[in-house]
């Protein structure tokens, strides 16, 4: 993997994480770096799921793959924000 590939993955991860964060209702008290990590993981898992479903190689832009990635990012953001919220209450 090249430096350009790593930078591209981080930018795509940030965008996917931000889109996932926008989909989840309410305020999420999680740092931007955690949103980035969730976005990168969701982008990778979304690509794997899209390939497994046979929808990753389409002509033009892969909207279904993007949908998988954003949904996974939203689930990740909701889980992490929910865990952090419960954790703060018990302190």
Instruction: Give me the strand/helix succession.
Output: HHH
- State the end-to-end CA separation: 42 Å
How would the global form be characterised?
globular
Helix fraction, binned, reads over 70%
Question: Structural class given helices, strands, pairing?
Answer: mainly alpha
Beta fraction:
under 5%
Please report the number of helical segments: 3
Roughly how many Å is the radius of gyration?
Answer: 14 Å
Number of beta-strand segments: 0
State the major sheet.
none
The overall pLDDT, averaged over residues, is: 82
Overall structural domain count:
1
Low-confidence stretches: none
3D structure, described in words:
Helices cover 77% and strands 0% of the residues. By secondary structure, it is mainly α. The protein has one domain (3-89). It is globular, with a radius of gyration of 14 Å. The N and C termini lie far apart (42 Å). The model has no long low-confidence stretch (mean pLDDT 82).
List the helices and strands and how they pair.
Elements (H helix, E strand, L loop, with lengths): L2 H21 L8 H22 L9 H27 L2
Helix pairs in contact: 1-2, 1-3, 2-3
């Amino acid at each position: 993997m090249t430096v350009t590939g790593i930078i591209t993955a981080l930018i795509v991860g940030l965008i996917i994480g931000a889109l996932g964060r926008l989909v989840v209702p309410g305020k999420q008290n999680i740092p931007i770096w955690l949103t980035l990590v969730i976005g990168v993981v969701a982008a990778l898992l979304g690509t794997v799921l899209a390939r497994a479903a046979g929808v990753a190689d389409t002509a033009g832009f892969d909207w279904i793959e993007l949908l998988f990635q954003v949904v996974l990012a939203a689930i990740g953001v909701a889980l992490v924000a929910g865990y952090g919220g419960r954790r703060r209450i018990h302190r």
